[in-house]
Design goal:
- It is globular and about 55 Å long.
- It has one domain: Four Helix Bundle (Hemerythrin (Met), subunit A).
- It has helices spanning 3-23, 29-53, 59-86, 95-122, 133-151, 155-188.
- By secondary structure, it is an all-alpha fold.
């Protein structure tokens, strides 16, 4: 157990705290839930950086890190879809679709790319579907958008976050196409 792995485990442990805060019926619970989500996103950056910098990459960390990320993001997406569906009448017509459709695309992409990476690893071509700059930008914009939709401090933040979620969705599709193209090239070989 090293520091990067501890940070990854901490991120997993933050998930139930995040869910509890999301539903806690107090005026500041949405701010606290957003802070926990942001802290989890920052630990994702930090654990990867430290693992490389300190030469502490492990098989356990390589497995748990993407799992922790996907669980955190998917949990957050499920919660915001539910929130904006239940409270749609408090916003503009169709806000639930503006949150639900990107969530479906993002979760679907995660499943497809995870399966593709697993298959590519089996045939020894895992590096062909390594994370690229599109995926990094997608993740950054997606995390900011989700944090804003969790925080929901005011309508401008909510609408800006929906706009960022739309950008993240476009990048999600783009990155999935890039990864699928690499997979298709490997299938043809």
């Amino acid at each position: 157990m090293n520091l990067p792995n501890i940070l990854t485990l901490l991120r997993v442990l933050m998930i139930p705290v995040f869910v509890i805060l999301f539903y806690w019926p107090t005026p500041r619970s949405n701010l606290l839930a957003a802070c926990v989500f942001i802290l989890a996103a920052l630990t994702d950056l930090l654990d990867g950086y430290l693992a490389r910098k300190l030469h502490q990459t492990t098989k356990f960390g390589a497995f748990l890190d993407p799992v922790a990320d996907k669980i955190m993001v998917c949990t957050a997406l499920v919660l915001i879809v539910e929130y904006y569906s239940v409270h749609a009448k408090d916003f503009y017509y169709g806000i639930n679709l503006c949150v639900s459709i990107p969530a479906i695309v993002i979760v679907s992409r995660e499943i497809v790319v995870s399966a593709l990476r697993e298959w590519m690893a089996e045939i020894g071509k895992r590096s062909d579907v390594a994370v690229n700059w599109i995926g990094k930008w997608k993740t950054t914009i997606q995390m900011i958008a989700i944090a804003g939709l969790i925080w929901r401090v005011n309508e401008p933040i909510i609408y800006a976050s929906i706009g960022m979620l739309a950008v993240a969705t476009v990048l999600t599709i783009w990155s999935m196409i890039v990864y699928l193209n690499a997979g298709i090239r490997s299938m043809r070989d």
